[in-house]
Amino acid sequence: MEAGRLRREILTVYFSRVVDTAPGFELSEGALAKHFEALGKREALAFAEINGAELQAKFPDCRVRAMSTEEQFLAYYRFLNPNIGAAIPSWVLGGYDESRSIQENCLLGDLHQGLNPGVSFDLDSLHHGIVVMRELPKTLGPGLITRLTNLGFVDYDLTLNIYPQRSDRVVKALEDSTNQLAGEMRTKPKEAYRLGTQLEMGAEQIREYERGSKTPIDVFMALRLWCKDPETLISRISGVTNAFTSVGRATCYHATNPETARQLFYQTWPGWTYGTYRGYDQPTDNITAADLVPWSCSFTGRLDTAEALYDSATGGLVGVSTEVARVPQHMVLFAATRGGKSTFLQDLMGQTGHLFGYVLIVDDKLSHATSVETLGGKPIIITPNGNVTINPYDTGGLPLSREHLGGVVGLCLLMLREAGPLADPARVSRVESNLTRHITQLYTRHWDEWRRQEPEREQEIARRALAVQRYLETRMKGYNNTFLDAWRDFADWEQNGWGEAQEFLASLDEEEVAKFATHHATRDLVRDVGISDFGPEDFPTHGKLVEMMTMVPIGGEEENPEAVDIGERLETWSRRGPYGKVFDGVSTVRVEGDITYFEVGMIPEALEELRAAAYYLVLNVSRQAVLKRPRGERKFCLFEEGARLIQAPGGAKVLREYYTQMGKFGATVCTVFQQYAALKEVEQVRSSVFDNTKLFFVSAQPSSAAAEEIGNGLSLSESATRSIRNFVMPEHQTNEPKHSSFLMHAPGERTPLVGALRNIVSPEMLWCAKSDNEVFDERKALLAEYEDVVEGILTESRNGKAKAKQPWVANRNQS
Hints:
Elements: H1 29-58, H2 69-80, H3 91-94, H4 102-106, E1 121-123, E2 126-135, E3 156-164, H5 167-187, H6 192-211, E4 216-227, H7 230-246, E5 251-255, H8 258-267, E6 282-285, H9 286-292, E7 308-311, E8 317-320, E9 323-324, E10 327-328, E11 331-334, H10 341-352, E12 358-363, H11 369-374, E13 379-381, H12 402-415, H13 425-453, H14 455-474, H15 483-496, H16 500-506, H17 510-518, H18 523-531, H19 542-551, H20 556-559, H21 561-570, E14 595-599, H22 608-628, E15 635-639, H23 642-647, H24 651-661, E16 667-673, H25 677-680, H26 683-692, E17 695-699, H27 704-713, H28 718-726, E18 740-746, E19 753-759, H29 763-769, H30 776-783, H31 789-814
Helix pairs in contact: 5-6, 10-29, 12-13, 12-22, 14-15, 14-17, 14-18, 19-21, 24-26, 27-28, 29-31
C-alpha cells in the first residue's frame, strides 16, 4: 500500500439527459424547486431500474447498483481533490451543503498553469497531465482497452464520454460525402480503386444506419494523471502515449497548452456531457464504442466484512467471510491434486481460526497435521494396530438420543455387511429391530447399575430431565425441536442466564419430579439425561453387546437364535478380532478440546471395510462434539475428502445432515472434492449441499472438460468458466512468488458474487502444508526438538530453503 501497488478499479457509469421542459405556468421559486426535485427523483429511479437492469443482465457476475447522493458527492470530492487518497475522512461529509453547487462543495483550490514543462496544470498541490485520444484505433476487440486500465500505477482517471447522434443527420452527411466520392472517381480514374473502396464503405455505413443494426455515436476519451513529482509525471505520460498506440494504433494528444488542458479537464467531470469544447470528439458507431468502454472493475469479495484477505489478479484485495449477518457460510472446495487446496485451507484457518471456538478436521492424508500442532492439537490416527479406541456407545457427554442410537445400530449393520443398496430390506429390518432392542437394553442395564451407585445424583438428573421437557414445551421457539435441542439450549441458559435456569430448576415440585422419573412414558428421558453424566468407563462397549447377544439374548437362545448369530458375527469387530481395539473398549480419546483432528488415511486400502466403518464412526463422534458445544459458539468443520465420505455407508446421510442442520448450531461446514462428478452422481447429496452452500471455491482444473462440468454445475457464466480454464497450476508457474488461483462463487438472492483470488503463501505455511503421510514422521521428529512448535516451523522452513539453494550454488561454482 505504501509503495502504491495496491489498486482497486471502480467503474462508474453516468447516464445524463437534458431536462428541456418546464411547467407551462409561472411558479414560485419554492414550487419550482419541488417540481424539479420530483422530476429528478423520477428520472433517477428510471435510470436505476432500466439502465441498471440492462447492465446487470449483460454482466451477470458483477454487482450493479445505483449510487446514493452521498456516494456521488464522495466521487466528485475524490475527483477534484485527488491528494486526499482513496480513504476519504468522515469529516468530509459534514461539510456538504445542499444549497451549494457541486463545484462550490468539492473544488477547494484553484486550477493554475504549471511551471514545469510538460505539465498540463496544477491542482490540489499536485501536478496533472491530460492526454486525449485524437484518432480512433485502426483495429479493436474485446479486452484491448485494458492496455489503458493496467498501466502499473494507480494515480489516474480514464474518462469516456459517449454522445448518441441523430441517424438522419449522420446519414445525410454520409450521403453528401459518398456522392462527392462518386464524382471524384469519374474525374480521377487513376485513384478509382481507393476511392471505390471508400465509396463502398460509406454505402455500407448508410445501409447499417438505415437498417438500425448500428447507431451513430461520437466518443471523447481522455486520461488524467497526477503526481507530486513533475519528472515522474512526464515519464508516466510517455508510457500512456505508448499505451494508446498499443490500443489498435490509436493516436493521442498530450495537452500542454494551459487553456486547452483546462477545457479538456472540464470535459472529464463525472456525468458532465454538455461541455462545448468538442473538437476532440471522434465519430463512430455503437459497436466500436462498446470496445472502448473500460468494462473493468476489481473483484473485492466481501471486503467490508472480511475475516480473511487474499490478493486479486489485478493487484487489489479480496475479502472472504465465513459468517455473514450471523449466518454460517457453508463452503465447498473443488480442487484438483496439486491445485493448492491444502495451503489455501490452512491459510484460511490461519486467518480465521481465532473466531472459532471449536475446529473439527477429518483428513485422509495428514495434510493439516503440522498446522494443527501449532493450535495445541494432535492427530487422532486410526489404524488396526494402533492404540486408539473410540467407543461408539459413548455419547460424548450428550443425552442418549434416537439419533445416537440409530448411529450405533447403523455401525453394527455396516459391520454385519447388512447395509447398502444390495441388502435385503426385509432382513435388514429384522436385524435392525433385534439390534435396537439389545442395544437399548444394554444402555438401560448400565443406567440401572450407575444409579444404584449414585442415588443422590439420580434425583438431580430426574429434576433436570423434567426441566428440559418443560423448557421444550413452554420456551422453545419454532417447530420440529427435539428433546436434544432443548437440552442443549437449557445448558446454554444455565451458563448465560444469570441464575434464571437455576430458579427454574428449583421451582419444580418434588412430587412432580418423582412422578416424571417413574412414569412409563417419561422414565426413559430420565435415563437418557443420566447417561450424559457417564464417565468413559461407565458406557457399554462393543464386547458387552457381543456377550449379551451370544450368552443372554432377549427372549433366550431358543426363541431368538438370530440374536446369537448376530452376536457371533459382530465378534469379528471386538478387541480379539482382526481390526484390533478401534471399536471395542473404553475410549482412549475424548473429543473435548477446542480442536479435533481425525486421520483415517493410514488405514490400508485392502481393509476397505475397516475404512468405511472408521469413517462412519468418526462422523458420528464428530457430530456429538459439535452438538455438545454451546450453540452460540462458532465452529468450523472440515472434511478433506468429500468423495470418500459420500462413498462410505451412511456418509451421504451424515454429510446432508451437516449441511442442512449444523448451521443452527453455529457450525461452518467445508468439504473438499477433487471432481464435481463425485458429487453429481449422488443427486440427493448434491441438492442438499448446493442448496445450503454459501461459498464455492474452484481451483485450477486438469482439463477444460473438468472446468466446463463445474461451470455447468454451478451455473457460472462463460467468462467465469473461462477464468477457471485460464488458471495455471503452481507447479507450471515460472515467476516468483508462485500462487494458487481460485474462483470464488457466492450465490446471491439476485446476483451472485463471482471473482478470482490468489493465495500467495509464505515458505513457513508451505512447509506446514507439505505434511503428508511420507514426511509426517520426519517433521514430527524435527519439531520434537523444539519447546515451541511455531519456533520449530520457522527455523526448519528457513533451513530447508537454505538447503534447497545449496546445490544450485555448488553447480554454479563448478561451472
